[in-house]
Amino acid sequence: MLKLGITGGIGSGKTLVCSLFAQFGVPIYNADERAKWLVNNHPKIKADIITHFGESAFQNNTYNRAFMASVVFKDKEKLYALNDIIHPIVFADWKSFCDENSSVPLVIKEAAIMFETESKNTVDEIALVYSPLNLRLQRVMERDNLSEQEVMQKINNQMPEDEKLKLAKYIIYNDEQHSLIEQVLHLHKKIVK
Predict the structure, then answer these.
(1) I need a surface site. Which of 16, 57, 109, 183 has the fewest CB within 10 A?
(2) pLDDT, tens digit, for every residue of 17-61?
(3) How far apart are CA 133 and CA 164, in angstroms?
(4) Do the domains at 1-27+106-193 and 33-100 have one common CATH topology?
């Protein structure tokens, strides 16, 4: 089984690309969604977050995203501490997902930050979904009802796209110039021989 990572900046179209792979029967693990679920439902994660960040980290037994963002985005050490709590359990969850799907030739892990974390070491190859900045801005502003400044703040917190382009084995262009379906079909055929 080949473990393919799908990554890309905010608004690049990772989820759309993964939904196309899913049409070919490829199991998709959305690391960001699973991490959100695990933070709210895994007892060790909850206990460790409360120990490190206090009772305010959860409100009505639900992860207090706004509070935690205000804490960790001001202090890189606290962000690292939070990642050290969450990432090992997400990695174990990904391993279980792979074990459950061991009979298929390809599984995909979708993650917004892959090159920036140890997540890159949990897959065999990485495909970058690349989209020009103007399209990413437009998509995220419409999708999340955010201002251009708010979207740029998120984009500026991610690894620059030109660095990701150098690191990815495959590039899928989501630029309204290339057919996404043809690119996904070609890559699927190339990987699943």
Answers:
(1) 16
(2) 999 999 999 999 999 999 999 999 999 999 999 999 999 999 999
(3) 14
(4) yes
CATH class of the region 33-100: alpha beta
pLDDT in tens, 94-153: 999 999 999 999 999 999 889 988 899 999 999 999 999 999 999 999 998 988 998 888
Using alpha carbons, select from 28, 44, 145, 130 the residue that is nearest to residue 88. Answer: 44
Contacts of 29 (CB under 8 A, 6+ apart): 94, 97, 107, 108, 109, 110
**Residues making up the chain, counted from first to last:** 193
